Amino acid sequence: MKILIGITTKNRAQILPKAIDSALSQDYQNKEVWVFDDASTDDTSLLQNQYPQVNWITSAESKGLMYARNLFMDQEGFELFCSLDDDAWFLKSDSLSKVIHFFENDSRIAAIGFDMLDKQNGLPSVIKQTVSLTNSYIGCGHVIHCSAARQVGFYTLAPGYYGSEEKDLCLRLIDSNYLILKYTGEYVWHDKTNIERDLQLQHRSGVCNDLVFAYRRTPILYLFPALFSKIIKQFLFAFTYKKNRLGGSTAKGVYDFFAWLLTKKTLRKAVSVKGFKKYQSYKNHGQIYMGSTFI
């Protein structure tokens, strides 16, 4: 199976080489590494000479992460797409080989997420590797089957630039009877650099997109309780983390959602009740994947 390792970047020339080197160092041979430069204004373009083996796509205007991911997944000749953030990198050279093995042996698998490490969650003293059933993945390091993503329509753009895109895609994949797995113990390091990252604006966007996700996909039977519950949880989260001053950005995110409802871009396409219930039950499911069965 041929895999495209895609990295989307914007104004992170200082840290981007670590992600590229990590991708190139993977021992899986049938791969290509692509970088989407989302209208960077720093020295990112100078890295093209340093990495001629990488396929560079440079956008004159900012298109956003979801645009880039959809572009990567829609390229001909690739069965799999590995999304790696520009501030993330593999810790081992055989991570892709291990994950691709599962795709090769089970056509039901749509996506596998890597285990994430960062400055707050360092490498554990004892590493136990398991592959288990889940309902979503963390976007900064995952592998997805391109044909499965194409079948459900790839990522759907939301009003905000960030938030809930993985949940939205995974819900639709689960509704189409695909599996989402997590590879615990197979790590990707996420540096979570604040370069080009406005935390208040990001949270505002995340709140809005989470409500949009619920509105678009929740079956009508559960829609209003789901929206009410999400709004309450968002404010509770904001008040729990007072030091980050998220109350204002939470309120603005809720406002953005209701403003979006008044537009003509609110077309609902809810999943089935069965798919919605599966998605909910898989959140903390934890069943260990054993090839064709779970334990």
UniProtKB/TrEMBL annotation:
Domain spans labelled Glycosyltransferase 2-like: 5-113
Domain of life: Bacteria
One Gene Ontology MF term: glycosyltransferase activity
Keyword Transferase: yes
Record-listed E.C. numbers: 2.4.-.-
PANTHER family referenced in this protein's UniProt entry, alphabetically: GLYCOSYLTRANSFERASE (PTHR43685), GLYCOSYLTRANSFERASE 2-LIKE DOMAIN-CONTAINING PROTEIN (PTHR43685:SF2)
Protein name: Glycosyltransferase family 2 protein
Provenance organism: Pedobacter vanadiisoli
Organism placement in taxonomy: Bacteria, Pseudomonadati, Bacteroidota, Sphingobacteriia, Sphingobacteriales
